[in-house]
Amino acid sequence: MTNELFQAASEPKVNATSHFDQLTRELCKDTSVWFVTFSSQTSARGNPAQTNYAYANSFMERVCEKRVADGLHGLAIQWGWIGSVGTVVKRLEQGDFSTQYISQYLPQSLDSCFDCMEQALVCGHPVVGVFVKNTLQTSHVNKDNDTVKQSILDQVVKILALKDPDSLTDSITLQDVGIDSIMTSEVKQLLEKSVNVSLSNKEVKTLTFQKLREMDASR
């Protein structure tokens, strides 16, 4: 990465945060003024080829920490994967599943983001993380302490939030029951992890429930 590319990605957040910090200190003497910046989980956990983006977010967090230390309000929210907007969703729509966000987090709805932001505003910490952790498990331990694999079919039903799985005939495809790009990414992860099968977006959407049952039988 060149210096020019690094600066092009980091300067907007760095400069804007610096200017707003200075202006609010000079013009807004009231300590009740809210100072909120939107950071990212890349600042806390990193992401390949995004050092400049992580640096810019980390800079905003340090400014907020300094403001709180000075008796002013400052809050940086480390957002995870937002379900309906942002770079991750654009990548999914283009068929790019390379970012580690896809495996680490689940999409968070905008309503949930607003609810969490309201809590973050009054939590008293200068930096908070808001995200939905991906806890999808492909197995569980039963009462006899034996590891039992969860069926692929059951997990797909859960991902798609299908209310009547018994009505799903063999010929029905995932596209028939309304799979979207976010769900497609989750099913793709599941198949790669469970049966080491890598499919394209189109192939995932055209999977039939018969094929899912066959995958379960082959495990």
Automatic annotation (TrEMBL):
<dbReference type="Pfam" id="PF00550">
    <property type="entry name" value="PP-binding"/>
</dbReference>
<keyword id="KW-0521">NADP</keyword>
<keyword id="KW-0444">Lipid biosynthesis</keyword>
<feature type="domain" description="Carrier">
    <location>
        <begin position="143"/>
        <end position="219"/>
    </location>
</feature>
<dbReference type="InterPro" id="IPR009081">
    <property type="entry name" value="PP-bd_ACP"/>
</dbReference>
<keyword id="KW-0275">Fatty acid biosynthesis</keyword>
<keyword id="KW-0443">Lipid metabolism</keyword>
<dbReference type="InterPro" id="IPR050091">
    <property type="entry name" value="PKS_NRPS_Biosynth_Enz"/>
</dbReference>
<dbReference type="InterPro" id="IPR036291">
    <property type="entry name" value="NAD(P)-bd_dom_sf"/>
</dbReference>
<dbReference type="GO" id="GO:0016491">
    <property type="term" value="F:oxidoreductase activity"/>
</dbReference>
<keyword id="KW-0276">Fatty acid metabolism</keyword>
<dbReference type="InterPro" id="IPR036736">
    <property type="entry name" value="ACP-like_sf"/>
</dbReference>
<keyword id="KW-0560">Oxidoreductase</keyword>
<dbReference type="Pfam" id="PF08659">
    <property type="entry name" value="KR"/>
</dbReference>
<protein>
    <recommendedName>
        <fullName>Carrier domain-containing protein</fullName>
    </recommendedName>
</protein>
<keyword id="KW-0511">Multifunctional enzyme</keyword>
<keyword id="KW-0596">Phosphopantetheine</keyword>
<dbReference type="GO" id="GO:0006633">
    <property type="term" value="P:fatty acid biosynthetic process"/>
</dbReference>
<dbReference type="InterPro" id="IPR013968">
    <property type="entry name" value="PKS_KR"/>
</dbReference>
<dbReference type="GO" id="GO:0004312">
    <property type="term" value="F:fatty acid synthase activity"/>
</dbReference>
